[in-house]
Model the fold of this input.
Amino acid sequence: MNSASDLTGNFLTDVPFHTGSVRLAWSADRGSVSVMTRYNGQSWANDMNAFDEIIGADRYPGYLTTDIRGTIRYRSFTASLGIQNLFNELYYDSKGAVCPGRFITFETSVKF
Done:
């Protein structure tokens, strides 16, 4: 085990082992739809790469989220609905806080 001041050979904290995303999109004259899935792999919880009593593990677990967005256009009017974290997957960030979960946005615009 390394001493508290020697971090030689340890991995960085808050940096996932693996990340990736896939996005599918469909677009037409009157609108568009896109779906994106993101994966964030496990990451070490502390500088020592050791068990952390606060989270009860040595690593933050990986998680998968899915976002969806739809847009409708009619003449000069546009409306969009976006849902981030569609399935409300709860995960912890590097500060030990729970993510906000599902997040919904609605936008409208008119061109003059």
About this structure: The CA atoms of residues 31 and 98 lie 34 Å apart.
